[in-house]
Amino acid sequence: MKPRKTRKVYIGKVTIGGDAPIAVQSMTATRTQDLEATARQIKILEAAQADVIRIAVDSEQDVVALRTLRQQFPDSVWSVDLQENYKLAPRVAPLVEKIRYNPGHLFHLEKNKTVREKVEFIVNAAKDNDCAIRVGVNGGSVDPDYKERYKDDSVAAMVFSAVDHCQMLDEMGFENYCVSLKDSDAQKVIDANRKFSKERPDVPLHLGVTEAGLPPDGIIKTRIAFEQLISAGIGDTIRVSLTLPNDDKGREVQVGREILKDIAARRFRSVPENFLDGLNIIACPSCSRVENEKFVDLAQDVKKMTEYAEKYKLTIAVMGCRVNGPGETDDADLGLWCGPTRVNLKKGTETLGSYSYAEILAQLKKEIDEMIRVKNGSRHRERSEAVGIAAGQFSSQ
User: Rounded to whole angstroms, how far apart are CA atoms 281 and 215?
Assistant: First the structure.
């Protein structure tokens, strides 16, 4: 176990980095304005002993809800996810201990302003209210400039987006920040965090495999990344992102602590080399951006329905919102991007149609069956060609 070398960052009463214990985080999966449901989520996560609870804010109404919730939970340590509205930073900063922004989202907002100006706006709000900042880079929503710059290396696009934002924060005299580099592919998470830690060994890292999906696969993917990174001294705070019913969200914290305990005791789990060679279902862990809670049930139904195809190397993405849905489904063989009443079915970047929640499984199965038919046809042709070549070689002898 290599020691961590990062500096300390202060998230209210929680310290991460350096020799501080690795903190375990989770996120409310409800609409923030639904005060009763969100309060219930906070209670569940507090009961599971989450060190930091992340809540999403995307509108003035969310800010009002956050203020009301803060009165009910004055001692909770909260991180706010600004989602696509960075201008709310001064409104939410007095109510939370950490602000999380996604560099990829800043690119699309107020094109008349530079990214640096937008970052400075967030930094000033954090400084004025003694907040920490997390620069949260997500593989499904990387800044387009970096995607273009590193066309053939998605890991480098993530890493250098984060490195450049760290440089901006440093130049602004702000040091109370950490970084996350997340993807639904555990190996990309490992590669990105290793690469970043070499570039900036001083910056604390928040680890997670985003859209890891349903248990047990989602737990295994996350464990793979955490074991490889934390044992190498990389990682100061974690989140296990699982697609679960709202009342079960405390399990994310429990699983995270179990993994940390195993790593500390050097109980590493052996994973077969071909674990992810077959069917791979990625699904987001749900959050306040989800517009229909049927999404969680749909992800579970997809897993059950696709059991017959488990030996085929296919990636199916089931995404619950508009933010990471497009990017993650673009990279999958088949993608379900869920809206309030309809589910967009995609094949790579191509949209195949929009279907009701009742119709989508049948349509998905048709596409899977067609992909299997094509794959089987390719294998048959490859075998035939191989037999033909072998026969030719034999006859020539």
Answer: 11
Query: What ranges in the chain are assigned the alpha helix state H?
Result: 35-47, 60-72, 89-92, 103-108, 115-128, 144-149, 154-171, 186-199, 217-230, 250-264, 294-305, 325-330, 360-396
- Residue linked to tokens 């809206």: 339
Domains and their CATH numbers in the chain: 9-264 (3.20.20.20), 280-369 (3.30.413.10)
Contacts of 342 (CB under 8 A, 6+ apart): 354, 355, 356, 357
CB-CB neighbours of 51 under 10 Å: 22
Amino acid of residue 218: G
The answer, yes or no, to whether the previous bond of 3 is cis (omega within 30 of 0) is no
Using a cut of 0.90, tell me whether the model's pTM lies above it: no
- Helix, strand or coil for residue 114? coil
pLDDT in tens, 169-198: 999 999 999 999 999 999 999 999 999 999
**Spatial separation of the C-alpha atoms in residues 306 and 312, rounded to whole Å:** 10
Cβ atoms of residues 322 and 253 within 8 Å = no
**Beta bridge partners of residue 319, listed in sequence order:** 337
Angle between helices 35-47 and 60-72 (to 10 degrees): 50
Alpha carbons 343 and 298: distance in angstroms, whole number: 10
- Is residue 243 within 8 Å of 299, Cβ to Cβ? yes
Q: What is the mean predicted confidence (pLDDT) over 368-392?
A: 67
Burial annotation 112-126 (CB, 10 A radius, 16+ → b, else e): eeebeebbbbbbebb
